[in-house]
TrEMBL record:
Lineage, highest ranks first: Eukaryota, Metazoa, Chordata, Craniata, Vertebrata
One GO BP annotation of this record: L-valine catabolic process
Keyword GTP-binding attached: no
Protein name: 3-hydroxyisobutyryl-CoA hydrolase
InterPro entries hit by this protein: ClpP/crotonase-like_dom_sf, ECH_dom, HIBYL-CoA-H
Domain of life: Eukaryota
Listed pathway(s): Amino-acid degradation; L-valine degradation
Organism: Lates calcarifer
Amino acid sequence: MEILRSLCRLKRIQGHMMSTHVEPEVLLEKVGRAGVITMNRPKVLNALNLTMIRQIYPQLKKWETDNDTDFVIIKAAGGKAFCAGGDIRAVTEAGKVGDPLAQDFFREEYILNNAIGTCRKPYIALIDGITMGGGVGLSVHGRFRVATEKTLFAMPETAIGLFPDVGGGYFLPRLRGRLGLFLALTGFRLKGRDVQRAGVATHFVESKKIPDLEKELVDLKSPSAEDVTRVLDTYQNKSSLDSDKPFVLDKHMSDIDRLFSASSVEGIMQNLKADGSEFAKKQAETLSKMSPTSLKITYKQLQAGASMSLQDVLVMEYRLSQACMRGCDFYEGVRAVLVDKDQNPKWNPSTVEEVSDESLEHCFSSLGERDLTL
């Protein structure tokens, strides 16, 4: 009996020891001539935090100049998410008490987004799962983005009193027609092959083929961008899943271009209400739930970003991030959607009409020496 008790105690201690073994939040390894980044927080859908950013950035810069590294692959553990976004709960907690994390997180995240966008070596993001917000920032500025049937893309920030940052002001207005503005304002979700059809991903490969694809990439000897393209194209051509289904927004594209081409958020809302179609009704209802301040910031952000470099967009977005930290909607949105989950935010101001041009201008104004420098 005594032996049994001590065995049980040993089991408990072992169990405890195993549970205190902390997995690294991001894995950085060389496989052949490839630098491989693996997001490794599957329990929280690989949410991106400052610790991870501070590990990925210097390694990416090192690989970029290292003669033994030909290209970079970024992927994620767990099979469910690539990265569901930035760890914004931590950011709002910091913002409430004036902790510098509220500045450091956005600043360092945007510096990483820029490093990905300017990376001189092929950068391949395997976005096999949920890819939103901060996860989009880790992938969309790279040369290659491979979606699978498990990919779920969205920029849902207007629902939490933020705006589609991480360079959203750069890539969204460059999608066809008014698609980017539509995705930015409504947070509409794209799935699977549609992520590539929208232009967010460069390729579509079936999820079960990803391990083979990765192996084939890693086995390449000093590949050029063309060599990588060839491999990705081959795998895409072998992936026929859902190829017969039309793009989910195909039948709505002309409506989106027409309804979302108004010269203001108010104009878009009027267009949607006047249109009367099911689709327009649904989008009007969606927009009515979003932060009015966020909607106005986002409209102006994409309008300006359409003719800016990625660097200038990130400088602008850093100003906007700090305006959101000074305001109240971001805290209220995170409370309603992520903390209390009552899905009932009380926005202030509560209508787009009440968001003054003056308060909007203030969000975009320079922070002087606190501006982001790239």
